[in-house]
Design brief:
Elements: E1 10-13, H1 23-36, H2 43-50, H3 55-66, H4 74-89, H5 96-105, E2 109-114, H6 118-128, E3 139-141, H7 153-162, E4 169-173, H8 176-184, E5 188-192, H9 198-204, E6 207-209, H10 215-218
Parallel strand pairs: 1-2, 1-4, 2-3, 4-5, 5-6
Helix pairs in contact: 1-2, 1-4, 8-9
């Protein structure tokens, strides 16, 4: 199944904002955290500045904006605060479960490739009941490759680990950096725009969708 011009054999799903509705929570906690350090920043501004970045890159940018280094335990404290919020607030992105189930029912394979740490992916998929949809070896993190998104390393690593070539693979993303990474990997990419900047996704090269329920059909799997 799959090949150039046909339905993909593998669909790679980003996690945050595609499978789990975590971006709003993460950026609210991040904005509050940075505000406590003296930065004037709202949840919307946090998302606009930092969505899709590695945590180390967020720390570097925030340090530059503040004009001083963040506390040594900043990342650990932020992740702890964020995870507590996840446990009480996190929900599935509407249509995400049906999208993954539709891909699998069509005989294609599915995996997750996230900019976040693997522990975070396990946590958020577990809290939302989506973990059961993916094999143990089908979760991938940018911490396992030399460069995160917007570079292609993560998606190429995920596809190769799953046993598929780039031209047999499609990606579902919600950030411009993720779309750029998929395009750099020469993979087809759907940009989920319901809660993201549709223009930025389109400009980065995504085929836009506004519902996760569209995924199987748009990829020719139904």
């Amino acid at each position: 199944m799959g090949g150039v011009g046909g339905p993909p054999s593998l669909v790679i799903f980003d996690c945050d904002g595609v499978l789990v509705d975590s971006e709003r929570i993460s950026n609210r906690v991040l904005a509050a955290n940075l505000s406590s350090l003296g930065m004037s920043i709202s949840t919307a501004e946090s998302r606009a500045r930092y969505q899709g970045l590695l945590l180390a890159d967020i720390a570097a940018r925030a340090s530059a904006e503040l004009g001083r280094e963040l506390p040594e335990d900043w990342a650990e404290r932020y992740e702890r605060e964020r995870d507590v919020a996840f446990e009480s607030e996190l929900a599935i992105v509407p249509g995400a479960r049906a999208a993954v189930e539709g891909v699998l029912a069509a005989g294609a394979h599915a995996c997750v490739a996230s900019q976040g740490r693997l522990a975070k992916t396990h946590l958020t998929l577990g809290l939302t009941g989506l973990r059961e949809l993916f094999a143990e070896d089908a979760l991938f993190s940018a911490e396992s490759v030399p460069r995160g998104k917007p570079f292609p390393d993560l998606f190429l690593h995920a596809a190769a680990s799953m046993g598929f070539a780039a031209h047999d693979t499609a990606v579902v993303e919600d950030s411009a950096s993720g779309v750029k990474a998929a395009r750099a990997a020469e993979m087809r990419v759907l940009g989920y725009s319901a809660d993201s900047d549709a223009r930025a996704l389109g400009d980065a090269g995504a085929e836009l969708i506004d519902s996760m329920l569209e995924v199987p059909r748009r990829l020719g799997l139904t």
